[in-house]
Amino acid sequence: MSLLSNYLFVRQVLSRTSVFSRSTFMNASRLSSVFRYSSTNTSSQEQKQNETTTTTASPSSSNQTAATQSQSEQKSDVDVKQLLEQNTKLNEEINEFKDRYKRALAETENTRVRFNKLVNDAKTFGIQGFCKDLLEVADILNLALVNTPKQVSTDITTLTKDFHNLHQGLVMTEERMQKIFSKNGLVQIKPNEGDKFDPNFHDALFQAKIPEKSSGTIIQVMKTGYRLHDRVIRAAQVGVAQ
């Protein structure tokens, strides 16, 4: 392209000159032919070079495309394999969690059954120890009855002795029973006359005006009360001065 430009420039210069020789024109014509041949030859070489480049590049591009497809297929195979492995692992974890859940449910059910049994046993046999202790009271009462004659003696000495034995048996029964109550947390509420009335532990059955007694004090104990540990199960029944 640079030769053609030079040719056009020379021809333009010659055309503007008013007088030039024939030899000069011939030389210009020859130069024009040379320029045309050179331009044609250059274009032909460039075209051949482009064709060669295209021909050479085509197999390379095809090979590159094939390689890219192969890599994509290999990558897809790897991705599928990884997904399958992850799926297998997740299924194993799911099965493990299901197994744990089933075992937890079974253990919870067993615990519930055992707890219900303990509750029922506590209701049924919770007072077993208390009842066993009361058997001693029953034994003492039975012994007192055995030692008390069924017929009243007319002899004053014998009668006095029988009464004494009965009284001793009742005293022993009372003492033993109170020990059993105390052992099981059952304590007497037994106020004395003159004590201050306490509605938390006492139940006023009646009120009376007594000049020598202060208002609100206990003047008579009708029945002993009881509390189980810290809970009052029966308040002491008393009379209170107004």
From TrEMBL:
Keywords: Chaperone, Coiled coil, Mitochondrion
Subcellular location: Mitochondrion matrix
Composition skew (Low complexity), residue ranges: 52-73
Domain of life where this protein originates: Eukaryota
One Pfam family hit: GrpE
GO cellular component, one term: PAM complex, Tim23 associated import motor
UniProt key word Cytoplasm: no
GO molecular function, one term: unfolded protein binding
Biological process annotations from GO: protein folding; protein import into mitochondrial matrix
Stretches with biased composition (Polar residues): 40-51
Region feature (Disordered): 40-79
Sections of the chain in a coiled coil: 80-111
Family indicated by similarity: Belongs to the GrpE family.
Role according to the record: Essential component of the PAM complex, a complex required for the translocation of transit peptide-containing proteins from the inner membrane into the mitochondrial matrix in an ATP-dependent manner.
Name assigned to this protein: GrpE protein homolog
Organism per entry: Rotaria sordida
